[in-house]
Amino acid sequence: MEEDANATSKEDAFMKRFKYYKSNKPKPSLEEVISVEKHCDDKITGCPPLDITDDPRTDLLGLRSLKEWQLYSFKGHPGLLFIKNPFTDSGQRYWIRKCLEEYPRKPNRLNIDIESNLQDWWAECFRNNTCDKQLLKKLRWTTLGYHHNWDTKVYSEDNRTPFPNDLAELSDVFAKYLNYKHFRAEAAIVNYYHMNSTLSAHTDHSEVNLEAPLFSFSFGQSAIFMIGGKDKSVEPSAILINSGDVVIMSKEARLCYHAVPKILPSTDSPWEKPEICKMNDMNIDISNLKYLTEPEKIISVMKQNVDNQEWDRFRNYIQESRINMNVRQVLNEKQSSLQ
Ligand code: OGA
Ligand code: MN
Fold this sequence. Notes:
α2 packs across α6 (295-306). The protein has a 9-stranded antiparallel β-sheet with strand order 1-2-3-11-8-13-6-5-4, with helices on one face. A 4-stranded antiparallel β-sheet has the order 7-12-9-10, with helices on one face. The chain is of the alpha+beta class. The relative contact order is 0.20. The protein has 7 helices and 13 strands. The chain binds N-oxalylglycine and manganese (II) ion.
């Protein structure tokens, strides 16, 4: 990820819009923000893939049946795709919990590692049954697989740990749905946003393979996502992202500038829906798995999540935060390492 370090004196179109949406005083108008709920027919088109065959893995991974998914493309942004929340309500709980309780554990890397190298950030936040709110707020990112190097932007073989099987499996379902037959999830950044957080303009270009799509899964509070062109003089669009929405940056959009200038309170909380209780009597198919070796672990977490008290700590967090899992393939199809 590249921070906007060398902003020119003559302000570019991207920065101008970024500042506009970031502002609290005055508050920006959301009129121009593209939302799939708002039927912006001049800007977006529904584009369901031809011949969708259902994927037996969807139930287990907390996804709705592929036939129910709504895929959109954007008229001004070829290669940019958007799937309106394809997650079930229990699926939302599952992934939110994973991003908080499990992914920030070692050997994964955290932004707070430089000051305190914690084995288990979430457990540490709730040690002795109290809540360390300060520590809770400090986590801004966790990296998985090939760890993103924030200084050099270069991935390396000696900075790589196993990629979570469940997230690899989830990404594979999306890749298959979009007809990417050889996609492999090899690196991810999990971003944690508070209500006043932003993510500045950048392109993601560290991966060797820039042909593979990038999958971005968001949960919790909503966000304005901006995307422009290959340089910052291109006028960007602003898109509303709600909990469960999936953004795919593929083809021409893969190397475009993008940013998150604002987090907005969500109008809906799918992770609070009563549907969550249905999990107990579901008949879950565990066939056709490619990466997951212990599907019963997922089912067990999903069942624990039905208990509202068990879910309390995660609820409190997500009520005022946004989580984004940003998944990439690093290597080329025939490569198995960076050597
Ligand atoms: C990133 C990114 C966007 C988002 O992690 O590289 O662009 O929606 N995230 O949080
Ligand atoms: Mn990015």
